[in-house]
Amino acid sequence: MGPSVDELPVAKSEHETVALITIDTWRADHLSKELTPTIWALSESGERYENAWSPMGLTTPAHASMLTGSMPWEHGSWANNHHGYGVNQSVVLLPERYEGWATGAFVSAYPAGPEGGLDRGWEVFDGPQTGERAGAVAVERALKWLPSDRPALLWVHVYEPHGPYEGRGMSERERYAEEVQLADKTLKPLIDVLRARKATIVVTSDHGEVLDEERCSFQHERSISDHVLKVPMVRWGPGIESSVITGWVGLDDVPALLKGGAIAAREVWVGQSGMCESDCAPGCAPAGLQGRDTVAITSEGRLVDRPGKGRFSVGQPVTDLGPTLDAVPPMPEPFMDQTDHARSLGYIDPPTDR
Asked: What residues does 313 pair with on adjacent strands?
């Protein structure tokens, strides 16, 4: 029988540890005792956020919001890094807020870095230069790196729930659930060590996934539905009491959550789809990034701004959401050359009029 977690050298530290764990393409309704027992146990003794929101169903912009505390139209990462967008140099990233700390990031897919600016400020940034890798690689390298001689900020990203789904299930939905289970199992050694270190931990997702609920199924880039924009979120750490938080929060709240403070709930959330494809979003135009939807969401309903179609309401939004949509600036041209890494991850962009 091997040593217990508490006996492992990496689990011992007299210094503070702060950890962000992100599971790519993880739906809010796939956080459960059955599918994610390790993270569910974390939530039972910490905070579970029932209304956490992503700004977009794309990996790079959503993670940029977590690492900057701002929205895509504020930090500049409007689309995945292979489109040529990235975080503005003037925007402060998470590791730059932890001066004097050891800072390490271990990611599992190209859209989470390093191109696009997500690697800026980290002492160690470990990720694939193209494609993806098993989440277990990121976890193993993070555990080997995790220092005990000074405070540490850690980001670990696993990619397993992202399509194409693998597993034994008879359906895509079943195989997706298997990948969520695998992500939880993969993260267990890391979460056990972080709990032993009494770290402050935030576990969340960049975005969810459409399974079989919409006309364009098993994707996330083309949707503004709750299946994509609503994400799981759990926080655990010293001084954090067990509770279920129903107030609305966003991925841009992650830096503040890692600091351990309380978050003011909001009543309106603004998000966008990753791109326009008229077969998926009827009436959108032009195809590609410039025809994406922008949506203002409340508990009563939503107002959608769809280029090519105009604005329309879904449900019965009580608040006048027009000014909220007006405040979102138009999407600028990319400032970097686009890359070919999209194809290595299964991204095939629709034609664009640009």
From this structure: 303
